[in-house]
Design brief:
Elements: E1 4-8, H1 9-19, E2 24-27, H2 34-40, E3 46-49, H3 53-67, E4 71-75, H4 78-94, E5 98-104, H5 120-124, E6 130-132, H6 140-152, E7 158-164, H7 165-169, E8 171-175, H8 189-201, E9 205-209, H9 216-228, E10 233-235, E11 250-253, H10 260-268, E12 271-275, E13 295-303, E14 314-320, H11 323-328, H12 342-355, H13 366-376, E15 382-385, H14 391-397, E16 406-407, H15 417-427, E17 433-438, H16 439-445, H17 448-454, E18 460-465, H18 470-479, H19 494-500, E19 504-508, H20 514-524, E20 528-533, E21 538-540, E22 543-544, H21 545-552
Parallel strand pairs: 2-3, 2-4, 4-5, 5-7, 6-7, 9-10, 9-12, 10-11, 12-13, 13-14, 15-16, 15-17, 17-18, 18-20, 19-20
Antiparallel strand pairs: 1-8, 21-22
Helix pairs in contact: 1-2, 3-4, 3-15, 13-14
Length: about 550
């Protein structure tokens, strides 16, 4: 039986986080949780002080995404909490375990419209798995335990907890909490037998890996299983690092700008294993990949949240399980080493699609830069990015080799790359971390470059500058060709921006100059920005403004 001790609720909270295995905290300080800030001093936790609450929340999401355990952020009352809401939304859409602790006004001031007061349950109820504000300090540890388990159970997601200032400073009798163990949902024996039978009789099977809840061991185990069964494997939108791109079973990703041959392969398949993902709008190619509302006997859907089954797709076999538990249940003797050439054909199509380079107007070719990076970065390097048309060059031409090495939101939220890179470099100080951002994307959270400099993190940020909100410009040219509105940008000198913060900065205006600039950035040991200027005409590897206008008959 654990002994109790008298301490402040804030100190008890920090001790509980430590007991639960939390190592990193991301925060913007506030007077509403001073008791917690004080407890951080002697806790041994790695506290990263951020420049914006949105950045702190994105860093916590990145930790949850990569480790599979809840990332933790602390922010202050209503202004801080609303700034952090973007990170909560990312975690919800991306099924990331995350906990946002937000300060609140004193309990005796609540419901009076007090300064910076917020109704956390009302505001965050629809953005999270659970939004709560404990009213009794003596029950805080109970709520924190529930928060961790809620964030991790079933389909993972964010929890938001409001913390009243006076509650945190109140003295309580705290006990050492029991360990936190995330729940693994294992598949049933009959379901696994049915899956094995279906695979053994399939002529054209394919697997699509997605979602969260994966481990590196599960990834490697499934790769071996796919090889034994001649099973082509695709990855879902922004889940590219769930499978080694150069594994002979890899068929490519089903995100934006997917290989048409891969899309046709999935449509022609007589067995589709959807493992861990939901096959949402982007991965389903606008809900066209598989019909909604029809019986799909060829679909086997493995997912940890039972509420997802039947929501969109009526799968012939539904298995409620986490990806890792399902893979562990596959066993080692399946497959008999069958080889009908399915993997080889699918992998050859992927290699041809991603080989490059793609033609591009102007002196900078982004496909050549991505090809150089895939050839010169360590195989365990992290690539972090947010959203924008530039990301299509990453998806198509960069080949991810290591587990969880692509840290990017499926919600396609701008401003994610730099905070994610800061978080990854804090967690993995010896690994190479690269953030790739568009010009509009970077300035959504570019201030977190100051955080990188403060903590002496040698991240390299590649800012791809075409003077435009490129993805919106692309949609604009498709619907209203030649009529440009609200998408042009006038940008600063991003290399000078880096130097102003105390980092390294370089400008690239020709593809041939990129390798030297990147090497110099790495050699500097500083937080770095490489400002790459490229022609706005090339929106994606397969779409140009001039081509769209020619198609529309607009000069």
């Amino acid at each position: 039986m654990s002994e109790s001790r008298s301490t402040s609720a804030g100190s008890a909270l920090v001790a509980q986080l430590k007991a639960y295995g939390v190592e990193h905290i991301f925060c913007v300080p506030g007077e509403s949780y001073l008791a917690v800030l004080d407890a951080f001093i002697d806790s041994g936790l790695n506290v990263t002080v951020c420049r914006h609450e949105g950045g702190a929340a994105m860093m916590a999401d990145a930790v949850g995404r990569v480790t599979g355990r809840p990332g933790v952020a602390f922010v202050t009352r209503a202004p801080g909490a609303t700034n952090a809401a973007v990170g909560v939304h990312i975690a919800l859409e991306d099924s990331t375990p995350m906990i946002l602790f937000a300060g609140q006004v004193r309990r005796d001031f609540q419901d009076r419209g007090a300064w910076q007061e917020m109704n956390f349950e009302g505001v965050f109820g629809a953005l999270s798995k659970w939004a709560v504000e404990p009213s009794q300090a003596s029950r805080l540890c109970e709520y924190v335990s529930r928060a961790f388990h809620t964030a991790s159970a079933g389909r993972p997601g964010p929890v938001v907890m409001g913390l009243a200032r006076d509650l945190l400073s109140e003295k309580i009798e705290a006990k050492t909490p029991p360990p936190f163990r995330p729940l693994e949902i294992a598949p049933g024996v009959h379901a696994m037998a049915s899956w094995t039978e279906r695979l053994s009789s399939a002529k054209a099977p394919i697997a699509i890996l997605g979602g969260s809840g994966w481990t590196e061991a599960a990834r490697d185990r499934f790769a071996g299983y796919a090889a034994r069964n001649d099973l082509p494997v695709a990855t879902s939108y922004r889940r590219l690092s769930l499978f080694d791109s150069l594994h002979p079973a890899y068929a490519g990703d089903v995100g934006l700008g997917a290989n048409p041959k891969l899309i046709q392969r999935i449509k022609d398949a007589d067995l589709v294993l959807l493992l861990g993902g939901r096959l949402g709008e982007v991965a389903s190619q606008g809900f066209s990949l598989l019909p909604i509302g029809e019986d799909l006997p060829q679909l086997v859907h493995v997912y940890p949240g039972p509420e997802e089954f039947g929501r969109l797709y009526s799968a012939g076999l539904q298995i409620c399980a986490t990806p890792a538990a399902f893979v562990n249940a596959l066993g080692g003797g399946d497959g008999q080493g069958s080889d009908q050439g399915r993997m080889a054909a699918a992998h050859a199509e992927y290699l041809a699609w991603s080989q490059g380079p793609a033609p591009q107007t102007g002196p900078v070719n982004l496909s050549e830069i991505m090809i150089w990076l895939r050839s010169n970065l360590p195989t365990d390097a992290f690539i972090c990015n947010g959203a924008g048309g530039y990301a299509s060059w990453i998806h198509r031409f960069f080949r991810f080799r290591s587990f969880a090495s692509h840290v990017a939101p499926t919600s396609a939220t701008m401003g994610y790359g730099v905070p994610a890179a800061v978080a990854m470099q804090r967690l993995f100080p010896d690994r190479c971390v690269v953030a790739i951002a568009g010009d509009g994307d970077f300035l959504m959270n570019g201030q977190e470059f100051a955080t990188a400099v403060q903590y002496e993190l040698p991240i390299v940020v590649i800012v791809l500058d075409n003077g435009s909100y490129g993805s919106i410009r692309m949609s604009q040219e498709q619907v209203y060709p030649g009529r440009v509105s609200a998408t042009d940008l006038r940008n600063p000198d991003f290399a000078a921006y880096a130097r102003a913060f105390g980092g390294f900065g370089a400008t690239v205006e020709s593809t041939k100059d990129f390798p030297a600039a990147f090497s110099a950035a790495r050699a500097s040991g500083l937080s770095s920005i490489i400002h790459v200027k490229y022609d706005v005409d090339s929106l994606t590897p397969s779409m140009t403004i001039s081509g769209l206008r020619r198609t529309a008959g607009v000069d």
